[in-house]
């Protein structure tokens, strides 16, 4: 196969877009390890006092991620994210208004390899989430372990990212006023194992914890589907029962994430393998909110009922918009 390198005359705008995506991929794959290594290394230099002072601050501030975090609007509005958004491009589609007097739990589907649509749309202002939903504060929920990493925790909080655990979600939905929207990637690591181009599949049948949380707080559920999320990377899919899937499930069980063997395009050529995602459109559609009553101790029957309503709503959202975003009308959303 002949390698076709990007032309030297590539517009500056495209180079900036590529650079923005490179830093995101690096952050996703390596930032946690780099933060730990830098923190430890600095302890053995003349800057050791900075590490000690940061550690003291870290201890005093340890509850911040569980109390809504500390978003920084300059970070969320950075031009870096606009360049990253334009690389694909990523688009946010609003279908209904959201009331600022209510709280919401967005169920985001599918996970994809890196959750690019979730990050671009809800942890930055690149696609104008605050303009499309005025008065709504989005909180993208991610693994709690990320907030135990020095420096990384502050970086995540600056974008409005919170831990996906009960303490954090309870605080945001009960002690942070109204107009909050927590975005939960419902399928999680298990769903990422099945992400591949041309496949529209979600892990949802036995994921009911987010529905129970919504009932306990009376937070409305909002289905969200990102068309194109699975198209930006190719992945080796291991069959159930294979050694590869066994290893992935062990990692998922004990660490919280599953290692995927994936690839995208190269940095200097679109027809070579690399870690840069393919430049494919990602269109995130925010569906109609489902009104949820407040029930302090919901029964399993009540959880099952509203879960089925949510699943039906997600399927209807997919069916309504699939034809507009490049899928055939015969395409069916696979719910596992």
TrEMBL record:
EC number(s) per entry: 2.3.1.-
Key word Nuclease present: no
Membrane topology, as annotated: Multi-pass membrane protein
GO biological process: diacylglycerol metabolic process; glycerol metabolic process; triglyceride biosynthetic process
GO molecular function: diacylglycerol O-acyltransferase activity; retinol O-fatty-acyltransferase activity
TM stretches of this protein: 21-41
Cell compartments where the protein resides: Cytoplasm, Perinuclear region; Endoplasmic reticulum membrane; Lipid droplet
Pathway given in the UniProt record: Lipid metabolism; Glycerolipid metabolism; triacylglycerol biosynthesis
This protein's GO CC annotations: endoplasmic reticulum membrane; lipid droplet; perinuclear region of cytoplasm
Reaction catalyzed: all-trans-retinol + an acyl-CoA = an all-trans-retinyl ester + CoA; 2-(9Z-octadecenoyl)-glycerol + (9Z)-octadecenoyl-CoA = 1,2-di-(9Z-octadecenoyl)-sn-glycerol + CoA; 2,3-di-(9Z)-octadecenoyl-sn-glycerol + (9Z)-octadecenoyl-CoA = 1,2,3-tri-(9Z-octadecenoyl)-glycerol + CoA; 1,2-di-(9Z-octadecenoyl)-sn-glycerol + (9Z)-octadecenoyl-CoA = 1,2,3-tri-(9Z-octadecenoyl)-glycerol + CoA
Assigned keywords, A-Z: Acyltransferase, Cytoplasm, Endoplasmic reticulum, Glycerol metabolism, Lipid biosynthesis, Lipid droplet, Lipid metabolism, Membrane, Transferase, Transmembrane, Transmembrane helix
Chief location category: cytoplasm
Pfam families: DAGAT (PF03982)
Record-stated family: Belongs to the diacylglycerol acyltransferase family.
Protein name: Acyltransferase
């Amino acid at each position: 196969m002949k390698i076709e390198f990007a032309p030297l005359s590539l517009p500056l705008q495209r180079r900036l877009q590529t650079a923005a995506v490179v830093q995101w991929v690096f952050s996703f794959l390596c930032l946690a390890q780099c933060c730990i290594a830098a923190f430890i290394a600095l302890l053995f230099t003349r800057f050791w006092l900075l590490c000690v002072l940061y550690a003291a601050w870290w201890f005093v501030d340890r509850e911040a991620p569980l109390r809504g975090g500390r978003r920084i609007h300059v970070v969320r509005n950075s031009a870096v994210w606009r360049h990253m958004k334009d690389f694909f491009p990523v688009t946010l589609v609003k279908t209904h208004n959201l009331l600022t007097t209510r709280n919401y739990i967005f169920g985001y589907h599918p996970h994809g390899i890196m959750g690019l649509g979730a990050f671009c749309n809800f942890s930055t202002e690149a696609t104008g989430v605050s303009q499309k939903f005025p008065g709504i504060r989005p909180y993208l929920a991610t693994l709690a372990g990320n907030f135990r990493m020095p420096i990384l925790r502050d970086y995540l909080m600056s974008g409005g990212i919170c831990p996906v655990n009960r303490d954090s979600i309870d605080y945001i939905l009960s002690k942070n006023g109204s107009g909050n929207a927590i975005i939960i990637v419902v399928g999680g690591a298990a769903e990422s194992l099945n992400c591949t181009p041309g496949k529209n599949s979600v892990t949802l049948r036995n994921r009911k914890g987010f529905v129970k949380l919504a009932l306990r707080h009376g937070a409305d559920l909002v289905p969200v589907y990102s068309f194109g999320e699975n198209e930006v990377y190719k992945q080796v899919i291991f069959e159930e029962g294979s050694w590869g899937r066994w290893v992935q499930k062990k990692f998922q069980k004990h660490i919280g994430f599953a290692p995927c063997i994936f690839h995208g395009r190269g940095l200097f050529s679109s027809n070579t393998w690399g870690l840069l995602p393919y430049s494919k459109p990602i269109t995130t559609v925010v569906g109609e909110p489902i009104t949820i009553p407040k029930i302090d101790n919901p029964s399993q029957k009540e959880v099952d009922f509203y879960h089925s309503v949510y699943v039906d709503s997600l399927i209807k959202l997919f069916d309504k918009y699939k034809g507009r975003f490049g899928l055939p009308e015969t395409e069916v959303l696979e719910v596992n």
